[in-house]
Amino acid sequence: MRVMGVDPGLTRCGLSVIESGKGRHVIALDVDVVRTPADAPLQKRLLAISDAAEYWMDTHRPDVIAIERVFSNQNANTAMGTGQAGGVIALAAAKRDIDVHFHTPSEVKAAVTGNGRADKAQVTTMVTKILELQQKPTPADAADALALAICHCWRAPMIARMAAAEAMAAEQRRKYQAKLKAAR
């Protein structure tokens, strides 16, 4: 499975692509950070992020996109910008019929480090070890994008099993309700 990890942000948006192998083996294919100037108009910044993400999707052909979910943030402007950047990337993926999954920062940290409250240095160190990189990815947005992709690779089988179980439960509920209706 090829996963594009996205750490959305208006000033710095981390993009990565990894491929999963057997078990928990993952290989980094590419990583970069899209930067936009803080003084540029919002629509121009979002367009630059969208253009870069679309180029990555068309070049790397990911099977799925893993985007960091804005869970909570003390700064409303930062949260809005992060949400907007993630939104334009999700839209670009939808136009290409690529599945999108959102993961909270604590889910990503727990998957990569075993600790949902790990700091950025711990995440970067573990990403470097997991992917067997020669040097640590910088800036932190690049490491976070790789961590998102790793998290999704490792969680995808569980996500698929949960979706199948939910579909089965919905089908059983539908059959049961039809049976009840027929008995009336």
From TrEMBL:
Q: What is its main location?
A: cytoplasm
Give the binding site residues for Mg(2+) 1.
D7, D141
- Is the keyword Transmembrane helix in the record? no
InterPro entries (alphabetical): RNaseH-like_sf, RNaseH_sf, X-over_junc_endoDNase_Mg_BS, X-over_junc_endoDNase_RuvC
Q: Which UniProt keywords apply?
A: Cytoplasm, DNA damage, DNA recombination, DNA repair, DNA-binding, Endonuclease, Hydrolase, Magnesium, Metal-binding, Nuclease
> Which cofactor is recorded for it?
Mg(2+)
Binding of Mg(2+) 2, residues = E68
Chemical reaction(s) catalysed: Endonucleolytic cleavage at a junction such as a reciprocal single-stranded crossover between two homologous DNA duplexes (Holliday junction)
Cellular component (GO) terms are: cytoplasm; Holliday junction resolvase complex
Pfam families associated with the record: RuvC
Please tell me which top-level EC class this enzyme sits in. hydrolase
How is the cofactor bound here?
Binds 2 Mg(2+) ion per subunit.
Compartments annotated for it: namely: Cytoplasm
Q: Which SUPFAM superfamilies match?
A: Ribonuclease H-like (SSF53098)
Protein function:
The RuvA-RuvB-RuvC complex processes Holliday junction (HJ) DNA during genetic recombination and DNA repair. Endonuclease that resolves HJ intermediates. Cleaves cruciform DNA by making single-stranded nicks across the HJ at symmetrical positions within the homologous arms, yielding a 5'-phosphate and a 3'-hydroxyl group; requires a central core of homology in the junction. The consensus cleavage sequence is 5'-(A/T)TT(C/G)-3'. Cleavage occurs on the 3'-side of the TT dinucleotide at the point of strand exchange.
Q: Which family does it belong to?
A: Belongs to the RuvC family.
The record's listing under NCBIfam families reads: ruvC
What is the name of this protein? Crossover junction endodeoxyribonuclease RuvC
Q: Could you tell me which species this protein originates from?
A: Mycolicibacterium wolinskyi
